[in-house]
What does this fold into?
Amino acid sequence: MLKPEPDPTPETPGAKDGVAGPPRWGKGTEAPEEGRFLQGPQPRFTELKRLSRICVDFVRGFRKLHFIGPCVTVFGSARFREDHRYYELAREVGQRLGLAGFTVMTGGGPGIMEAANRGARDVGAPSVGCNIVLPQEQSHNAYLDMWVEFRYFFVRKVMLVKYSYAFVVLPGGFGTMDEIFECATLIQTGKIRNFPLVLMGTEYWAPLVEFLRGTMVAEKTIAQADIDRILVTDSVDEAVDRILAAATHEFGLVWQPVDKPRWFLGEARSVPPPASRPPEAPPAR
It folds into this structure.
């Protein structure tokens, strides 16, 4: 049985005067808590405390997001500025989703996230951010009606899927790619069915699509059907039509009054109530 080797350096947790501390497990991280988690088995009480913090993260998310209504989550880079074409596209996406009656949910940061939340704010639609606490703190954008911060990435991902009827993905980096393939895996394995995954920006995504088709399908590591489920487009109309068709015809979403907060549970609505009926058609552009 392989066991972790002792590290004789004084930097080892528990080491003193050059004497080896307990065996080291895991990987280095920037945040001490994650580093301790990745060191492997911990005392049982320590693991119980960590599990309690995870439960608190879930409960916080469930309570704050209970009244936000049906959402569409928009992903993309935090690095695009207001004058970038993808920022402008994301803002239009937020507007159209808001006019369609959805709450617009993002990671709550700048760039594409800010643009989508701003688009929702433009048309008076609810705008929500699910932030993640990182070593390099990133403040939420100014166009949120409500936001909730999560300690754990996996809890945040659960919330983004739980309350969303679709993902719209604009150009982005590693985090954006992670969200694409997380969602694609859930769809492929049947954990979520017929869930719209829309990639906006055909030029940006062309090399990725070519790799999926020319390499992964060719090598039979994925099926052509796995790619066919992903819509790649530059058309906001096409994207919103796909999302509405799935939400109403496949998921059975109907327009009705939303649940009301219960005062005896300490609940309160943190965002404007979502539309209780289908909105009017957006004005011609």
